[in-house]
Specification:
Keywords: Hydrolase, Protease, Serine protease, Signal. This protein is of the alpha+beta class and 711 residues long. It is built from 15 helices and 37 strands. It has four domains: 268 residues, Rossmann fold (3-Layer(aba) Sandwich), CATH 3.40.50.1820; 103 residues, no CATH class; 152 residues, Methylamine Dehydrogenase, Chain H (7 Propeller), CATH 2.130.10.120; 94 residues. Strand 16 and strand 17 form a beta hairpin.
């Protein structure tokens, strides 16, 4: 359905062996306090001193990389690719129309536009602009970045439009009439905050935001939910739910189905992966007796869908349910007795196949899965005796995702993509299980000479770690191939094949090899694959990644001189760890919007929200471990490190630029070479608009070419 069930915190679109040196470092009290951290002044994000340092480092890097003979061509190509007028316009089905968010050379910050479904299916749809973010930004003197729309069910008549200044997670919300194409005069307006809002009815919102002192968690997210009535001042909104300051966040949302059923849910995010859910009953607000590691995934035909990420035996029942399963619960039973639930299985994972996505149409359920990191899709039909299912005929060796579904019928769009296969959009009818190719991205690079392999490396503890290699069919296995290895390894995020114009045009066409590793910490093989790398077990993730690098070298696909690595956010932490733990394996390291100071991460931006993933310095065992892997604390003088490219943005209010700055400053102290690029806007991303993003990628591939493609 239209509504999207929200997690209790914003995900970063992210550790076993302790050495004697790490123990000594922890005992000496490394830089988890301002007294021992000489670069803590760089944590003052916008101070004159910090910004002068940033400007100087940016200029030093630009003089080298922007004057490299490859940069101008890469920049021109990246900009051309990002602004190509024949890119796929991804559809958003709303109330019988197709909507699309679009950016190009004329619309730098983007437009939200619409057309009919029949017109959308033509070669040249006739779009009508609904919101022009560039014009709105000019009017308000703010560089507005779209944070999407949250619309009233059913019909999507009224919507809350999210507007972010420069790409921050915090935003402003304004009510918009989708039928007239105008902002509602005197309508709901929520000032700048990290916040969430959901429609209870046309005249009522449930809002979690900064209500003033004592309403935001230590992670920087709201934990007080209020009910706001149309026509009343925001400061008169009535509190209806409260979490705790120690939570990650709190919020509310409403599930609907097309038979008129609804269920409003209040949530407490007690950790990043654990939450409590509460529903209204005849006896008042009551907690659902579901696992902490579980998410309500939608509702259809009066059945509430529940995804569980831990094994579960419901209260008063003998039957247990396996982690990674999708269950159903009758809505009437949920409301009548939320303490004694009677779930049944919709989907249960196997040794190789794991649930990825859950979506609903008017009468059907859509599931996407990964089977040994290969995408699959199924239609489930509710019956009086359970469910029937039918697989959809999607191509092999691809990634499959649901782009959009329609609340008024059974129409849906799938996205199908692969490393060498341009992304395509397929129109389906869930009632008839039909599926037809409608639009395909034009090829952006010559893939005729390339091939994709899925190989395996053996990690330090014997675990088999699969990875994809994209390379020329005729490469020589002599260790001379410039190879770029990428992974994420955290937050149960699955890394799967996808078509990248930048990688194809700027890397593969120039003879480079691209590798994507499915290391532990991700979601490729269900919750257990993720949990294997949590907290003090995290060294397994880093061992997995190093094992893939060693396997590439052993197969003579590449060699340390020609092997580079790249990752962002939690993947940026991965890059920092690999650079400090195994500097011998890599000759290039791209560290993007990273966490790097793991002894102060809880005190920077939204870092406290990720204790469930990384652990906490407040727990001695976990603090000792974090000290042992923290890239900022593990940098040492007189070690030959690869010269990294460190990228961040000033307006990243999720991870923050502080990590990147301090890491670079310590490298400078140790007279270690590095490149540094910090752009102002962009939030937790490569840039706030297509031009900024194109420049970021041009700098990145210029750096990689310099480092890995030389003799």
């Amino acid at each position: 359905m239209r509504e999207r069930v929200k997690r209790s915190a914003v995900v970063l679109t992210a550790m076993l062996v302790l050495g004697s040196g790490a123990r000594m470092l922890a005992q000496q009290g490394p830089s988890d306090s301002t007294d021992t951290d000489k670069y803590v002044w760089l944590e003052d994000v916008s101070s004159d001193r910090a910004m002068t340092w940033v400007k100087d480092e940016n200029e030093r890097t630009a003089k080298v990389l922007e004057n490299d003979p490859h940069f101008a061509a890469y920049h021109e190509e990246a900009l051309k690719l990002s602004q190509a007028p024949d890119r796929l316009p991804y559809p958003d089905l709303r109330g019988g129309d197709v909507y699309n968010f679009w950016r190009d050379a004329e619309h730098v910050n983007g437009i939200f536009r619409k057309t009919s479904l029949s017109d959308y299916l033509t070669m040249q749809p006739k779009w009508q602009t609904v919101i022009d973010y560039d014009a709105l930004g000019k009017q308000d003197s703010v560089k507005w970045v779209s944070h999407g729309l949250d619309c009233l069910y059913p019909g999507d008549h009224y919507c809350l439009v999210g507007l972010s200044a420069g790409g921050e997670d915090a935003d402003t919300m304004r009510e918009f009439d989708l039928k007239t194409g105008k902002f509602v005069e005197g309508g709901f307006t929520l000032p700048h905050s990290k916040q969430s809002a959901s429609w209870l009815d046309k005249d009522t919102l449930l809002i979690a935001r900064d209500w003033g002192p004592g309403t935001m968690t230590k992670s920087g997210y709201p934990f007080v939910v209020k009910e706001w009535k149309r026509g009343t001042p925001l400061d008169t909104a009535k509190e209806v739910f409260r979490g705790q300051e120690s939570d990650i966040s709190a919020g509310a949302y409403t599930l609907h189905d097309t038979k008129g059923h609804s269920l409003t849910v209040f949530t407490r995010g007690v950790s990043f992966f654990e939450s409590q859910s509460f529903v209204q009953t005849p006896q008042g607000l009551k907690q659902l007796s579901i696992p902490l590691k579980a998410n309500l995934s939608g509702m259809i035909d009066g059945r509430v869908l529940l995804s569980i990420n831990e094994d579960w035996t419901p209260a008063g029942q003998a039957k247990s349910f396996k982690q990674g399963s999708l269950l159903e619960m009758k809505l009437a039973e949920v409301v009548k007795d939320p303490a004694h639930l009677k779930p049944t299985v919709v989907f249960e994972p196997t040794v190789q196949e794991f649930l990825q996505g859950v979506d609903t149409t008017r009468t059907r359920l859509l599931l996407t899965t990964l089977n040994h990191v290969q995408g699959k899709a199924y239609i489930y039909t509710p019956t009086a005796n359970g469910w029937t299912k039918k697989s959809l005929p999607v191509p092999e060796n691809s990634t499959v995702g649901v782009v959009t579904t329609n609340e008024s019928d059974d129409t849906f769009f799938l996205s199908i993509t692969g490393f060498l296969t341009p992304s395509s959009l397929w129109l389906g009818d869930a009632a008839t299980t039909s599926l037809k190719l409608q639009k395909t991205e034009p090829a952006r690079f010559d893939a005729s000479k390339d091939v994709v392999e899925q190989l395996e490396a053996t990690s330090k503890d014997g675990t088999k770690v699969p990875y994809f290699v994209v390379h020329r069919k005729d490469i020589k296995y002599d260790g001379s191939n410039a190879t770029l290895l990428n992974a994420y390894g955290g937050f149960e995020v699955a890394e799967t094949p996808s078509y990248s114009a930048n990688i194809g045009k700027l890397w593969l066409e120039n003879g480079g090899v691209f590798v994507l590793a499915n290391i532990r910490g991700g979601g490729e093989f269900g919750p257990a694959w993720h949990e294997a790398g949590l907290k003090t077990h995290r060294q397994r993730i880093y061992d997995d990644f190093a094992a893939v690098g060693e396997d590439l070298i052993a197969r003579k696909i590449t060699s340390p001189k020609h092997l580079g690595i790249m990752g962002g956010s939690n993947g940026g932490l991965l890059m920092g760890v690999e650079m400090t733990q195994r500097p011998d394996l890599w000759n290039a390291v791209v560290i993007q919007v990273p966490l790097l100071d793991m002894l102060r991460f809880e005190k920077i931006a939204a870092g406290a929200s990720w204790v469930g993933e990384y652990g906490s310095v407040s727990i001695p065992e976990q603090r000792t471990f974090l000290a042992s892997i923290s890239p900022y604390n593990q940098l040492k003088p007189d070690v030959k490190y690869p010269e990294p490219l460190i990228f961040t943005t000033t307006k990243d209010d999720r991870v923050g630029p502080q990590h990147a700055r301090k890491f670079a400053a310590k490298m400078e102290e140790y007279h270690e070479p590095f490149f540094y690029d910090e752009i102002i806007e962009g939030g937790h991303a490569a840039g706030a608009d297509l031009k900024e993003q194109a420049k970021t990628w041009a700098l990145t591939y210029t750096y990689l070419t310099r480092k890995l493609m030389g003799e």
